[in-house]
Amino acid sequence: MVKFLRRTWSRYVKLGKGRKKKQVWRKPTGRHNKMREQRKGSAAIVSIGYRSNKKSRDKLMDKKPVKINNLRELEKINKNEVAIIGSVGKRKKIEIAKKAKEMKIEIYNMNPEKFLKLNTKNEAKKNESPK
User: Fold this and answer.
1) For residue 39, what pLDDT is reported?
2) Which contacts qualify for 119-122: CB closer than 8 Å, 24 or more apart?
3) What does the pLDDT read at residue 131?
4) 72 and 26 housed in the same domain
5) 74 and 112 share a domain?
6) 3-state SS string for 61-119
């Protein structure tokens, strides 16, 4: 999958240097623009032929992505959907990870076993430290 970015995105902060949201596609214009001329070695331009096929479009691992923010939303997931955890706090994330592990639901942007193992270690360290 080719990532189409504006020609000078890496040059200026306002065009997306270190800011993913600003790294948007703009058609290259200009008289001597190498990208517009599609010269060898320059980045790819948005054009016909790069689009993915209809079956796999807007899917992750051939499953429909669903954003999860709480346990209720996690319980509603079907077998042909994959969970993506939204911007949730640590406590809720631990609850979601436990439930997902129990229900055997795969989460795209987190490994529940690894996450729970790491956080139980941190909890144990926090509890044993003297005050």
Assistant:
1) 95
2) 119/90, 119/94
3) 61
4) no
5) yes
6) CCEEEEEECCHHHHHCCCCCEEEEECCCCHHHHHHHHHHHHHHCCCECCCCHHHHHHHH
How far, CA to CA in Å, does 3 sit from each of 44, 50, 51, 55, 120? Answer: 8, 10, 12, 20, 38
**Could you give the C-alpha distances from 69 to 38, 63, 84, 103, in angstroms and in order?**
43, 19, 9, 17
Residue whose entry in the numeric block shows the structure tokens 């639901």? 105
Question: Is 59 part of any domain?
Answer: no
Share of the chain above pLDDT 90, in %: 63
* Residue length of the chain: 131
The count of structural domains within the chain is 2
20-66 pLDDT, tens per residue? 888 899 999 999 999 999 999 999 999 999 998 998 899 988 899 99
